[in-house]
Amino acid sequence: MRLRHAMLAICLPVLMHGEIVSVAESADGPALRDGDRVVFLGGTLVEREQRFGHWETLLTAAYAGQDITFRNLGWSGDTVWGESRGLFEPHLGYQRLVEQVTAANPTVVIVAYGSNESYAGEQGLEAFTNQYAKLLDDLSAKDRRFILLCPLYLEASQIPHNPDAASDFAQTQNANIDLYAEAIGSLAESGGHGIVDLREQHRQHLNGDGPPLTFNGLTFTDHGYRRTAVWLTDQLSEHVPLEFETPSVAALRDAIIKKNELFFHRWRPQNFTYLFGFRQHEQGNNAVEIPQFDPLVEQAEQEIAKLAVMATKD
User: Fold this and answer.
1) In the 3-class helix/strand/coil scheme, how is 56-113 assigned residue by residue?
2) How does pLDDT run across 95-120, given as a tens digit for each residue?
3) Residue 112: per-residue pLDDT
4) DSSP string, 102-147
5) By the 8 A CB rule, do 80 and 117 touch?
């Protein structure tokens, strides 16, 4: 059942044969709404998406004509504890995670955690669940909605080294993925959040004869982002544009990728430690230049809005 028919505040996930199914108590419009600022938050899967842009391209085209903007705050290796964001100050990682989301001022946060944490297995499940709940609580704000994205599976065929060992490892780890996805479903239910679970589509793909979605079992390729973009958009909108290669869709995607690069330099400059970290006493005076990316991002978004309308007319 597609999330687009659900009022996210009361979207209740239930567990049926190991799969989380979104069930809405009432219909109150689409998942994304005119005026939304959507933040993608998570680890490697989310960070790399900004380089490919397929998720954002399809969602932007699906909601063409509406004022909906996107910000990618993914950080490779990140978890609900935010350790990766600490850089040389690990103890500040979680604080920075909360600050970064707050600064983006989203109305919707699509949260994609659980993949990295699931390697801890059942032993780490309670700590993960408690910290995820804390994160959602710390990120909560008036009129802010959350959509929790369940982790995806490992592809055994793409894991290097011994194929038999890889298959056994993937089977064990994918069981962990199911365990953590169920916990995420419970968090969504208890908090009244939306949820997107793409495991069934991924499972069908793994059991078919299509090309792999990753190059190492875990890290998604361009094709992987294309396929998951369709699955994701199908859950979050009424209309899924399927033609990736039309000139107008290609132009839209190129503009989105360029916008994402501008925003990346805005929130995560290469010399972050010198500008905002523990060495800011050396070059912190240059931090005043970083907000100069804001009008560039806004200008890029105006162009994206025009291209999105054009893409839907092809």
Assistant:
1) HHHHHHHCCCCCCEEEECCCCCCCCCCHHHHCCCHHHHHHHHHHHHHHHCCCEEEEEC
2) 999 999 999 999 999 999 999 999 99
3) 98
4) HHH--SEEEEE-STTGGGGGGGGHHHHHHHHHHHHHHH--TT-EEE
5) yes
The secondary structure of residue 18, as a DSSP letter, is T
Please write the tens of the pLDDT for every residue from 167-209: 999 999 999 999 999 999 999 999 999 999 999 999 999 999 8
Structure tokens at 215: 């190059």
Number of neighbouring beta carbons within 10 Å of residue 245: 6
- Name the residue type at position 96: R
CB 78 within 8 A of CB 42: yes
Phi then psi for residue 14, to 5 deg, are -125, 155
Determine the CATH number of domain 3-311.
3.40.50.1110
The closest alpha carbon to 255, from 305, 312, 290, belongs to 305
Q: Is the Cβ–Cβ distance between 237 and 4 less than 8 Å?
A: yes
Per domain, the residue ranges of the chain are: 3-311
Please check whether residue 172 is in contact with residue 137, taking contact to mean a CB–CB distance below 8 angstroms: no
Tokens in use for 8?
A: 């996210």
> How much is the pTM?
0.89
Total residue length of the chain = 314
Task: State the DSSP code for 212.
Answer: P
Rounded-to-5 percentages of helix, strand, coil across the chain: 55, 10, 30
User: What average pLDDT does the segment 289-304 reach?
Assistant: 87
Say whether pLDDT at 48 is over 80: yes
Q: Please report where in the chains the tokens 């399927």 appear, as a residue.
A: 242
CA quadruple 98, 189, 74, 142: dihedral sign: negative
